[in-house]
Amino acid sequence: MGKLDLSALKDQYQNGTIDMITVAGVDMQGKLFGKKVPVRYFLDDAVHGIHTCAINFIWDVSLKYAENYTFCNFDTGLHDIKVIPDISTLRTYPWIPKNAVVIGDIHNKDGSEVTIAPRNILKKQLAKAEALGYRAYAASEIEFHIFKETIDSAREKNFSNLQPLFSYPVDYSIYRLNVDDWFLGQLARYLEEAGIPVEALKGEWGNGQVELNVQYAEALEMADRTAIYKNGIKEIAALNNLMVTFMAKHDTEASGSSGHTHISLWDLQGNNVFYDANHPYKLSDTGRYFLGGMMALAPEFMLFYAPYINSYKRLANTGGAPNTQTWGEDNRTTAFRVDGQGKSCRIENRIPGSDANHYLVLAACLASGLYGIEHKIDIEAPTKGDASSAPGVKRLPANLAEAIQKLSNSKIARELLGDDVVDHYLTAAHNELNDYFLEVTDWERKKYFEFI
C-alpha cells in the first residue's frame, strides 16, 4: 500500500486493515520517538499533534540524559513539546500487522518550531535553497552488519564474539544474497510495501555486512525514508531473531559501515543544475561552487557527519577511508565523489558513516553547498589515485575532540545553522567525549591489567 492520505487511512481503518498508528518525531541521533495510538484516536485528536517530553532532545543514543542543555533541563521542568504529524509522511508499516506510521515536526507548546530538532534544521536549509530557485534531491546508501544474535544474547556476550549472518566477505556476491533471501528478500519487500523504493541490496566486504540503496527523492522525503528504514531494519531483524547494528565500526578488525550520501540541485523547472557537458569535469559553475562549499566547510561540519567517538574509528581505517579534504571523478578514495551525467549528475559525500543522522547530514551538505554558491568557492583539480597517500592533501578531523574544536571555532557554522543549533550539538558531543573519558574500556584492561 505504501503512502497514505487521511482518506485512505479512514478506509483502511473502517475495513479493519489498519488499527494502530505510530506518531513519531526524530531525535538528535536520527531515531524515532513518540507514541502508538489507535487510528480512531488519531483521526479524532492526535492528527493535530501529540505531546512528548523535551527530554527526547537531551539524552544520548543509549537514553542517558544530561542536565547541561539550555533547551531542556530541570529548571525548565522537563517540559512538553508537541509532535505535529506531517501527513505527507503517512504510510503503512507492514512488518507490524495493522500498523501505520507518520513522522511529525517538533513544536513548542506555543506553536513555535523547536529549532534544534533535526527535521526542522533540514527544512530551514531546504527553504533557503528554494528561495534561491533550487530543489535538493538526495539518496542514502547505508551499510550495516547483521548477526545471528538476539538483543538478549548480544548483551550476555557483552557485544563481543558475535556470530555474523555470514562469516566471510561477500562483496557483490549473488550467491549469498540468494542464500540469505529468507531475510534480505523479506526486508526489501517490506520496505517497498512501506513506500520506500529499494534500488538495490548488495553484499559488502565485512562479515555479515550488507548495503542498502534507496531510490533518490527530494531531500526531506529521503531523510524521512532513511529514518524509517533504519528503525525498520532493526525491528525486522529482531522479529527474525537477528540483530543489526549501524555502528560505524563495531569491531577493530571489522569493516566499517558507511552512510554515503548523494545530493544534487535542480531548478524549479526540473533540470539538474550541476551538469554541464561543456564545462570542465562536466560540472556547471553552480555544481563547482556547491562542491567547493562542501569541501571548504567539511572540517567545521564534521560533527554532523561523524557525531560519535566510534565514528572516527571507521575514518582512521586505511584503504580509501574518506579522511581527506579531497574530491575526485568517480574516485572512491576521496571524501567527495562526482559521478553521473545529465539528470543523474550528483555529488557523493563519502564522509558520513551509517551511524550519522541523515537529516543533519543533508542539512550540513546543503548549508555548506549553498554557502559555496553564494561565495563562488571554486574547486581545484580532482585528486587522482589514492587520496590518502596524495602529497599535500588536507586531513579532516581525526577524532571527536578535533571535530568539536572545528565547530566551536566556526563563525560560518553559527551564521548558517544558528547559535542554538551549534551550541546544542556541541553540548551533545562534549557529553559523549566526557562519558568516554570516564569509562574504563576493554582496551585499557588488555593493555594494562596484567603488565602494571
TrEMBL record:
SUPFAM superfamilies named among the record's database cross-references: Glutamine synthetase, N-terminal domain, Glutamine synthetase/guanido kinase
Single GO MF descriptor: ATP binding
UniProt-listed GO biological process terms: biogenic amine catabolic process; biogenic amine metabolic process; glutamine biosynthetic process
Biological source species: Brevibacillus nitrificans
Metal-binding is among the record's keywords: no
Descriptive protein name: Glutamine synthetase
Membership in a protein family: Belongs to the glutamine synthetase family.
GS catalytic domain: residues covered: 118-452
Keywords: ATP-binding, Ligase, Nucleotide-binding
